Amino acid sequence: DTWYSKKRNKDGSRVPTQRCGVGRRWRVRFTDDTGQIATQFFDKQSDASRFDASVRSDVARGLYISPSASNVTVAEFAERWRAAQLHRDSTATLVEWTFRAQVNPVLGSRPIGSVRSSHIQAWVKNLDVAPSTARLVYSHLASMFGAAVRDRAIPMSPCVGISMPQLPRAEHEVLT
């Protein structure tokens, strides 16, 4: 409680602090998975208690996602991901084209934590490339989101359950 001190007056009433009546009343302090002390404020004590229990269990299980980590844009995270990949030159060029020409114009400015499966499905549907190229482009994006999950920037990948365009069936001529 940030509005009242733990000290009591002689009559037993609570001593108000300088913050009394100003801002949110309940504060939760916790140490995140990187060892940094974080603080969050709440209007209701029940909300603060619920958040405290949730965040402490997430940190203990190694599932805590820092809000600042999920605010990185898709374009920023993709650039860091691309720089860390062990691709040959031709593959690196293809991956760079994928993000520059296909991903960043649509998803690049979004925070990585705000991308949902519906955004990815709409992006796949509107890709103006051949079905095989769409699958290749999507695989690069899915790999990048997989790395974001492993880096704990997002809790789960939005690239789950995405329907891809059908590949045309090739006619095979069997020689006699």
Topology:
Layout: E1 4-8, E2 14-16, E3 26-31, E4 37-42, H1 45-61, H2 74-84, H3 89-107, H4 117-125, H5 131-150
Antiparallel strand pairs: 1-2, 3-4
Characterization of this structure:
- By secondary structure, the protein is α+β, with helices and mostly antiparallel strands.
- It contains 5 helices and 4 strands; from the N terminus they run ββββααααα.
- The strands form 2 sheets. It has a two-stranded antiparallel sheet with strand order 1-2. A two-stranded antiparallel sheet has the order 3-4.
- A hairpin with a 5-residue loop joins strand 3 (26-31) and strand 4.
Main β-sheet: number of strands, strand sense, barrel status? Answer: 2 strands, antiparallel
Q: Overall pLDDT, averaged? A: 88
- Unreliable stretches, pLDDT < 50, 5 or more residues? none
Structural class: alpha+beta
Over the alpha carbons, how many angstroms does the gyration radius reach? 24 Å
Helix/strand order = EEEEHHHHH
Shape: elongated
Question: What is the number of strand segments?
Answer: 4
**Count of alpha/pi helices:** 5
Helix percentage range: 40-55%
Distance between the termini: 85 Å
Give, in spatial order, the strands making up the sheet with the most strands: 1-2
Beta-strand content bin? 5-15%
Q: Tags for this entry?
A:
two-stranded antiparallel ribbon, elongated, 176 residues, alpha+beta
Concise description?
The chain has five helices and four strands. By secondary structure, the protein is of the alpha+beta class.
